[in-house]
Amino acid sequence: MSLVDIQDVRKSFGPLEVLKGVSIEIGRGDVAAIIGRSGSGKSTLLRCINGLEEFQSGAISVDGMMVGKTDLRTLRRHVGMVFQQFNLFPHLTAGENVMLAPTVVAKLQKGEARDRAAALLEKVGLAGKFDAYPSQLSGGQQQRVAIARALAMEPTVLLCDEITSALDPELVNEVLRVVEQLASEGMTLILVTHEMRFARDVGTKLIFMHQGRVHEEGAPKTLFAHPQTPELAQFVTGAH
Amino acid sequence: MTYQMSFGDLLPYWDVLARGLLYTIILTVVSTVTGLAVGTAGAWARSFGPKWAGYAVGAYVELIRNTPFIVQLFFVFFGLPAIGVKMTESEAAFLAMVINLGAYSTEIIRAGIQAVPKGHLEAAASLAMSRLETFRYVVLKQAFMKVYPALSSQIVIVMLGSAVVSQISAEDLTYAANFVQSRNFRAFEVYLVAALLYLLLAIAMRALLRGIGRALFPKA
After folding, report:
1. Among all residues of chain A, which has the CA nearest to that of B217?
2. Inter-chain residue contact A85 with B137, CB threshold 8 Å
3. Contacts of A177 (CB under 8 A, 6+ apart)
4. pLDDT reported for residue A49
5. Which of A81, A104, A147, A166 would bridge with A159, disulfide CB 3.0–4.6 Å?
6. Which of A76, A88, A135 sits opposite B219 (nearest CB)?
7. Rg of chain A (C-alpha set)
8. What is the ipTM of this complex?
């Protein structure tokens, strides 16, 4: 059974239908890369998975929990999310950002949360930055803290919403390396991304969205080499 | 005619003035702390609370910000006893100041809350934090950080405005000055000294508030 099961999801903002019946299945350990033009509904779809957006019809289940029926907080304890704009809390240090949810939500002891935060910051290559404030970190460092923060809740699946799009080009790779490491450890990842090379090399599943629908999906290498639709062919060449 | 200055005539009354000054300081500190608590609750209600609470707080804020403080004070002290709510001068002064600062700080803190990026709320929600936890741990400190200078000014304004409570015989610095001048008729000297004491108090408060700000918000 798939870990994340999306069935015929429809979502409108007022009169504008942005998801027109999307169905995707993502297995445990998959690295699913969702690509497509802006406005194709990829970010909206991602935000539906952890309940940041509501959808009008269809069904999404994560590890057996039905989105919309399961209590949102229960769902979100299993679904981590990393954002394009990092969204670190500026009044807390990097370490405190990572510790916050484990202490407040998971009721971990301070010391335990601190150890976990320190370990996670080391994992993302920021061992020495525990006490640094977000404003003292580069964009790439901030995004790695944000990844550590999401991991601190030990999610079953991690959603990444264009997490390198706001970064200077030379900082993109340090973030992608962390994501790649997570993938190699078996973390289930769903990425909305514009990093085509990364999607091809690290992804296990490629989903091309176009005008609110899944236009093509399959193994990344196959899809990139032999796009079946003119839209994907044009998108792939245009993006390179 | 020439007026002979004599600040020496104030000396016998130094303890009266000192007591008045102390009263003003205590009244300001106590009503500031309580008023900010009211303002925080009000700002929460207007930003995240149920609709009816938002409207109720909105009405409170508009009522207080668009009427004179002295009328609010008189209403509390002279008006409320008519419906059986009696209190001492000090209690009335404290209550009126809390109500007043509560309204102004509601609006100031609300502005700070609105300045917190929506993405931070989404990040907190994604970490399975409840709305109250998000407010407590993510929004509030950021909001205070953003509006701290405006809040500090308002606190000093409230301290200076507290002179009005002398009108219901609450024994603050202005009351003390009135008392002294009624005894020795040295109006020029005593009000000049009172003004200087208020000035010094305001300067000291601003310095103290700056220090508190630096301690609370180390990177602000």
Report:
1. A91
2. no
3. none
4. 97
5. A81
6. A135
7. 18
8. 0.93
